[in-house]
Amino acid sequence: MTWVRLLVALFNVFVFPGILFSTFFGCLFLWVYRKIRARLQARIGPPWYQVFADVLKLLSKETVIPRRAWKLGFVTAPIIGLVGLLCSSQIIPFTLGAYPLMFSGDLIVLMYLMTLPAVALVIAGASSGNPYGAVGAGREAALALWYELPLVISAVSVALASGSFRLSDITAYQASHGAFLIRLPCATIAAIICLQAKLGRRPFDIPHAEAEIIAGPLTDYSGALRGLFEASTAVEWLMAPAFVTALFLGGPLTVWPIPGVVSFLLKCFGLVVLVSFVDVLNARFRIDQALKPLWGVALPLSVFSLIRVLMGLGV
How would DSSP label each residue in the chain? Predict the structure, then answer.
């Protein structure tokens, strides 16, 4: 039995829903975004394997560390972001039933893990010794503060409405009472607005504004370290929509004969398409303009949903 459990654990970490699964579908969703963006701009766009090729090429190249950089922070930043996302894959319920790290309060741990990519970018920019990186880090920190608050309040609304901070209980509640997309529409809208900012897509791509600060926190990154950041970005294209799907769209709940994991991925795909269209149809905000949709729209919507739940109207 010990060997069986060890093999199952290794399968969960390295295959499903771990490294291979998360990386493959993350790269695929990032390619979908790039393809939609290209087609809407009257371009052909990259082939489906382009993201994989970019990451592998960067991982095979030499890394140059700037002389003025804080080396410990500069090297560990991309690792922190990627590990946080891969750990998140063990908590999100991609399938019906048990998932690898199912425990009481796993939603709270998941929310912490999902903030690590933003923390990694802040560390990267601040430790690079480059003024462009410092500006990008400051913008990333401000943006993360603005979108995390309404996103957390929306998630808390879901947890209180379902009576549990365990994702399996939240999924079971949606199976019995319907997806929170219908029951808490304001919290869902707030979460989708925050999803756009969390993925760093227009109009919230402020920390990476090429015309202003080159690549922001990633300006000095090259080689394998840049490859880890690219891999982290790709995995986040699966994990961020998966977070919203699990809380508001019923997670792996499906209609027979579609398997639960297929239903989950189709919902994530729909969110990726939505994010892609919003990205193409909008221009970049200034850093001061980003506060209005996040704290002027998303935050009031999430607080309104929380009040409804506390009054017993969203359960």
Answer: -HHHHHHHHHHHHHTSSSHHHHHHHHHHHHHHHHHHHHHHTT-----TTHHHHHHHHHHTSPP---TTS-HHHHHHHHHHHHHHHHHHHTTS--SSS--TT--TTHHHHHHHHHTHHHHHHHHHHHHS--HHHHHHHHHHHHHHHHHHHHHHHHHHHHHHHHT-S-HHHHHHHHHHH--HHHH-HHHHHHHHHHHHHHTT-TTS-GGG-HHHHTTGGGTT--HHHHHHHHHHHHHHHHHHHHHHHHHHS-TT---TTS-HHHHHHHHHHHHHHHHHHHHHHSPPPPTTTTHHHIIIIIHHHHHHHHHHHHTTS--
Of 33, 174, 198, 28, residue with least CA distance to 93: 174
Domain range for 143: 25-310
CA angle 282, 208, 236 (to 5 degrees): 85
pTM here is 0.93
Q: Three-state SS for 125? A: helix
- Residue 148 pLDDT exceeds 80: yes
pLDDT above 90: residue 207:
no
| CA–CA gap between residue 192 and residue 261 (Å, rounded) | 21
Counting the structural domains of the chain, the total is 1
The reply to whether 95 falls in a domain is yes
Q: What is the DSSP letter of 48?
A: T
Q: Specify the pLDDT at position 1.
A: 55
The answer to whether position 19 is within a domain reads no
Report the C-alpha gap between 103 and 87 in whole angstroms.
Answer: 14
Residue 314, pLDDT score: 59
Is 4 within the bounds of a domain? Answer: no
The residue among 309, 259, 280, 283 whose CA lies nearest residue 38 is 280
Residue 301 domain-assigned?
A: yes
